[in-house]
Amino acid sequence: AGASTPHLKIGAGGVAHLCRDLGLDPVDIRVLLLAWLCRAREMCAFTEAELRRGCAALRQAEAPTADGLRAALDARLDAMTVDVAFKDLYRWAFDFGLESGQRTLQLPMATDLWALVFEARPSGVPPLLGAWLTWLQSGASGVKGVSRDTWNMFLTFIDTCGSDLSAYDHNEAWPSLIDDFVEAETDRANQNLLNC
Amino acid sequence: VAARPSMNRNAPNAIGGGASGGGGSGGGSNNSYSKMRIKAFPMSMDERYVNQIWDQLKRAIQEIQKKNNSGLSFEELYRNAYTLVLHKYGEKLYSGTRDVVAEHMAKIKDDVLASVNNVFLATLNSLWKDHQTAMVMIRDILMYMDRVYVNQQNLPSVYNMGLTVFKEQVVRHPVVCEHLRNTLLEMVARERRGESIARSQIKDACNMLCQLGVDSLQVYEEDFEQAFLKQSRDFYRSESDDFLAENCSASLYIKKVESRMAEEMERARHYLDRSTEPKIIAVLEEELISRHMRTIVEMESSGLVSMLRADKHEDIHCMYRLLQRVPDGVKIMTDCISTYLREQGKAIVAEENREPSAYVQALLDLRDRCDCLLAQALNRDRLFKQQISSDFEYFVNLNVRSPEYLSLFIDEKLRRGSRGAAADNEIEPLLDKCMVLFRYLQEKDVFEKYYKQHLAKRLILNKSSSDDTEKSMISKLKAECGCQFTSKLEGMLKDMTVSNMLNEEFGNYLSQAGGAGAQRSIDFGLRVLTTGFWPTQTTQNKVALPDEARQAYDQFHRFYMSKHSGRQLTLQPNMGTADLSATFSGAPPSGRGAEAADEPSSTSNSLAVGARRRYILSVSTYQMVVLLQFNRRPKITFEQLQAETNIPEKDLQRALGALCMQKMASQRFLNKEPRTKEISSTDEFTVNDAFYSRHVKIKVAPSGGVKETEPERRETRIKVDEDRKYEIEAAIVRIMKARQTLSHNYLIAQVIEQLKSRFTPTPQAIKSRIEHLMDRDYIKRSDQDRHYYQYVA
User: Fold this and answer.
1) Which of A21, A147, B485, B499 fits as disulfide partner to A66, beta carbons 3.0 to 4.6 Å?
2) Where, residue-wise, is CATH 1.10.238.200 in chain A?
3) Which residues, given as ranges, of chain B have pLDDT below 70?
4) Which molecular function term from Gene Ontology is one that the record holds (chain A) (predicted)?
């Protein structure tokens, strides 16, 4: 219904309405997917142009309906088999999460987005993600925000060392936040070994 | 074949053939006087004739061998040999000679064997000599054969053949061989035990063996040298073991080794073959030195460490000379010295509560000891030099306060009137030694910070003993670190000079200006500091100066602005001093405080007789402000002081502390109620009328030269870390701008390289700065390769 009204922009209320129509939880991955396909600039808001773009991407440009959109989104999620596309979604998510004028993503927003976006990953949610988020939320990292470079590099990190932390080399050009995480993780694993 | 023109048949003097009938002059029946015909020499000699000649020669040889050569005609024998060879009987001659020689050898051998139990060596040597002489003569006779036949047939020359026969028959005879060897070895062993022996006999025997090898020393080596070396090895192995078991003294052992080595060298030169010298020395080096070097270096109470402790340079030098000969010998010494040195150095730097000057002096003394050691005992060997330098670098940096202490030490030396100030002629070499220590510092930027602070205090409080010495020190630092290090220091010095000039000019300005505002209310001088040069100050507040001071400053301000209109002057109340005339009444505090007179004309310093006492107090600016408060009110609390003066709390506490914390009542200028150790905001202050001093002028302001308290040190360290962040970032940007694209590891390496003369950044610190710069878009990660960075223009 929101898509058919000629408002220039729909705000948070409108987005909530849209989600209801689509039968989706606002924090569902498919909503994020929709925002991405729309190349939405802001969270909780869509401009008309953005919505049009999204519908076109979902091949629902002609007479879009809620059900049609929903089906298309489901299909699109399933079709996310290519890492390249996921990478695009992932990187875009950083900008999406930024508050206006900010260059660094606030930590709570970063953790939320991380928890969400990996659901679209072709090879599934990485096992390390849980540990990563726990560590970040514990405050042990000491940082309040995440830089773009760190955000981008995290994906590379998951792809290269996600399954085997022993392959990690802190002398390489990894962001220092990830250095600290790996150190904490290996310490924790060693502790567990000692305690067994 | 010699072809001679046959000039005359049957000429009696024709060579070869000669008077005997044999090879007469056959052909040539057609000769006439006019024609010269070349005829081949008669080629055949009959058998009988040949044998005759040969027998003659044989007998001659035998006579020679019997040393009966005086009756022989060399010329005739030579001629005979010549004839034989000419007529192609060289083979007969040669083998015949060999047989004769061999026959004779058998006889010699018997003689030698007979002498085995009795003057064996002498006999052998004399028989050998005889043989040599005989062979020489035989060779001379047979020289033509040597030259022609022997060469053609590639046979050994006559003389060499004689050697070989002698060798095979006599010397290599099993009994002779063994007996010879044993005799020689026995003699050497006896000499080593201290007996004297017939050296010439050994010499002759060795000579013989050498010659018997013909063109090589093989006979000598096989028959004697190898056994000699083995015996020597065994001998010295057990001698050194025994010696060390009995005597636990490294220096004694070393002396013994030296004497044995000298002895063996002399032996080799005197009566063995020269070629043996390096070999026997090698044996000694291995058995006496290599095998035991660790033991003697590490020996308790006499090894290298105890020598070092007692500065026994002579002994160390002997040890060094000795150990130099063998591989790894020097390394054992350097390792031992290194361990000792590090232990000494650690002890110096680890001691708590040591005063900075004692600390640095101890390090300098240690360095002096090392220099002495290097010069006198170690020949300034490069390996030792390097090891010592690296040891110093190790322990000097164990204590993070080393840079501060070094700066304080230098400060003391450069300050006028301090206890440790150096005499004029001593100062330069002392500063050079300080520079040696400076080079070991890994955190040179920390030193720079402290040096600046201390220099600033010296200059402002006018405590520098000599401008030239200050400049000299700065130029030393410049030579070491480049002008970036010292440009600010030089600026500070310049500011002083300029300020002096300014004060003069200000004086002139005042006296010329005349009229209103020209009169100086108080005597004062100002120093103008260029902000960028001096240590950063954090105070920019408005301290409430007393009116007189404020007026004076305003006067100067007007004057200065008239000269330099574009500049900005800010008074720094945290620096500066003031001389106050203070009067204390002798009566106990009665609410009537002292009068701190500041009338302009107050110049009399005389001690008032009786109860009222007048002093001149030399105080800091803050203290001046505080004290002058007591002209208005007799009793003031800390809080009130703070409010009235606007002095920052910490500075106020420090200023008051120097005025009221003295132990004895007569030393205090102010009294504090309650008399607790800390100053709290409700404490009350009053003038201490019971103050008394023998001196008229009393200094209250601290004159610097004190090491920082722990909190101050932490603050300085924070500043240093901040500065380092900027320096690292500047280096990163510089490098990336030049290279445009660079890998992560290479960038880190380059940054460390560029900054190593100031401090050593860790890779993590550099990484953190890289991220910071990435965030601010100075550089970015390459899209192609995540290990590379790119410069963002």
Assistant:
1) A21
2) 83-195
3) 1-45, 418-422, 513-521, 538-541, 586-611, 701-705
4) ubiquitin conjugating enzyme binding
Nearest-by-CA chain A residue for B769: A176
Q: How far apart are CA B199 and CA B202, in angstroms?
A: 5
Check if the beta carbon of residue B581 is closer than 8 Å to that of residue B602: yes
Q: Is A180 on the interface with B (CB under 8 A)?
A: no
CB contact under 8 A, B786 and A176: no
Average pLDDT per block of 10 residues along chain A, 196 residues long:
57 82 82 83 81 79 76 79 81 88 89 87 85 88 88 90 82 89 87 78
Residues of chain A with CATH 1.10.238.10: 9-79
For residue B282, give Cα distances in angstroms to B184, B276, B289, B290.
21, 10, 10, 10
State the angle between helix axes of B90-114 and B158-166 in degrees (0 to 180), rounded to the nearest 10.
30
Q: What's the pLDDT score for residue B702?
A: 66
What pLDDT is stored for residue B37 in this prediction?
Answer: 67
Q: Please, what are the domains in chain B? A: 47-170 (1.20.1310.10), 177-290 (1.20.1310.10), 309-496 (1.20.1310.10), 537-585+612-707 (3.30.230.130), 710-791 (1.10.10.10)
The closest alpha carbon to B360, from B427, B467, B450, B435, belongs to B435
Interface residue A194 vs chain B (CB under 8 A): no
Q: Which of the 8 DSSP states describes residue B300?
A: T
Q: Provide the chain A residues 68-87 that lie in CB contact (below 8 A) with chain B.
A: none
In the A/B pair of chains, how many CB contacts fall below 8 A? 34
Whether the CA torsion B713, B716, B717, B718 is positive or negative: it is: positive
Q: What's the pLDDT score for residue B762?
A: 92
From the options 3.40.50.40, 1.10.238.10, 3.30.1280.10, 1.20.120.1200, give the CATH code of A9-79: 1.10.238.10
Q: In this predicted structure, what is the pLDDT of residue A7?
A: 54
Q: Which two tokens stand for residue B11?
A: 């000429």
Q: How far is CA B716 from CA B356, B381, B552, in A?
A: 17, 41, 34
Evaluated on CA atoms B430, B432, B435, B439, the torsion sign reads negative
Q: Check CB contact under 8 Å for B787 and A172.
A: yes
Q: What is the pLDDT of residue B405?
A: 93
ipTM of the complex: 0.81
Mapped onto helix, strand or coil, the DSSP state of residue B780 is strand
Asked if B764's CB is within 8 angstroms of A173's CB, the reply is no
Cβ contacts of A150 on chain B, cutoff 8 Å: 771
The shortest C-alpha distance from B741 to chain A (Å) reads 14
Position B598 scores a pLDDT of 36
Please choose, from the candidates B609, B611, B604, the residue with its C-alpha nearest in 3D space to the C-alpha of residue B584.
B611
Backbone angles phi, psi at A189, to 5 degrees: -65, -40
Q: Which residues of B touch A182 (CB under 8 A)?
A: none
- pLDDT value of residue B157: 87
Question: Closest partner residue to B787 among A104, A147, A173, by Cβ?
Answer: A173
- With an 8 Å Cβ cutoff, are B786 and A173 in contact? yes
Q: Which pLDDT score is estimated for A74?
A: 82
Q: What pLDDT is stored for residue B370 in this prediction?
A: 93
Residue B197 identity: I
Token digits of residue B22: 């044999």
Quote the pLDDT of residue B607: 38
- The confidence score (pLDDT) of residue B633 equals 86
What is the C-alpha separation between B582 and B506, in angstroms, rounded? 28
Structure tokens at B766: 């550099």
Domain A83-195 has CATH 1.10.238.200: yes
Q: Is A23 helix (H, G, I), strand (E, B) or coil?
A: coil
Q: How much is the pLDDT for B29?
A: 47
Q: How many CB atoms lie within 10 A of CB B660?
A: 19
**Assigned token pair, B111:** 């003689």
* B437: region left, alpha or beta (phi > 0 left; psi from -120 to 50 alpha): alpha
